[in-house]
What does this fold into?
Amino acid sequence: MAIVYPDPFLELRVQHIDMPFTKGLCAGYDGGAWRCERLADHLFNWLPFAALNQEHQLAFGSHNFVELLRLAAAHIYSTNKTATRGELGEVPVLSDPGSSTDFLVMNVNRDQLSPSGQDRQDRLPEETGLPEHILREHGAIGTSNLVELLRRIEDQVDKKPHHFSWHGFPDYNQKAAVAELMLYIAHKKQARVGVHMPKQVAWAWSKLQSIKSLPEFIDWFAGKFLEEGHPANVDGAFQFLQACEFSFPRSLAAIEAIIKYARPKVNLDYSVYMVEMENWFRPHWMKQLDEAGVPIPLGERLAKFIGPSASRGEALTTIGGLNLEATSGLDQVDQFILRMVRGEEL
It folds into this structure.
């Protein structure tokens, strides 16, 4: 089972894909005010992933949600600087999870909730018209957003069911239909996704899949959708890529779950497209190596040596067997990165 991390929050302000690889991030602004409270909420969402090992992260569930959250907070507080951080009991969600967000309430086991929290957990499905599993699994989108998404889905699926009944890879109209719903969520959450029209999103997905060079895709995106010469044009391309990696697949998963609940006769399976989207329609090993320190553009140059269905281990084995000096298309920086990945002394 894969670990599902919180959606990105920090905004990409600067990114250079050439070496040295550089990123600049900012919390951004809402209504002219720095998003300090939302940044604090985002940091709290990361607490279990920063403080717990992978075994505990994979074990998260409604039966132990508060227990593991307490454990994560205890790890953070068990340092020599604890005295300057206050008391663990001051964290409201740990002392009374029933007073927290709808998402947390639905993911906490009943015996860890107060009577009012239990009542709230019982009432939410009835008040929203959504089943418990959707509120638990997709509640991070926001309860009110899920309710409106349900309304929009019922209306749009009834009008054009063929736009939502698909498996594998959708056609252009099907892409635009789900993109419209995804953009509703993005705009309500004030997320920056690079483009803001469903047909633009559908077109950009198709181009990301067909253009095999990431720098070429970024140039295409910036040239088509953003003001020429504007300093934020490349930022928009990276916002779109970040959305493809995180928020778009999660929104699509919520859309799929709601359609299956509200219109069970619609035949659909979006899982393949979700996985391909979060991998930017590249071989999966390429994104995995990117996380290990091999930038995507370098991974694309290595694709001629590594099969598209290779695993991360198989890709690393192939890289380990390359004669870097004799391999065409690799400059000194590429060779330096690959030697680091191979664990060679530099």
Strands lie at 11-16, 22-26, 29-30, 33-34.
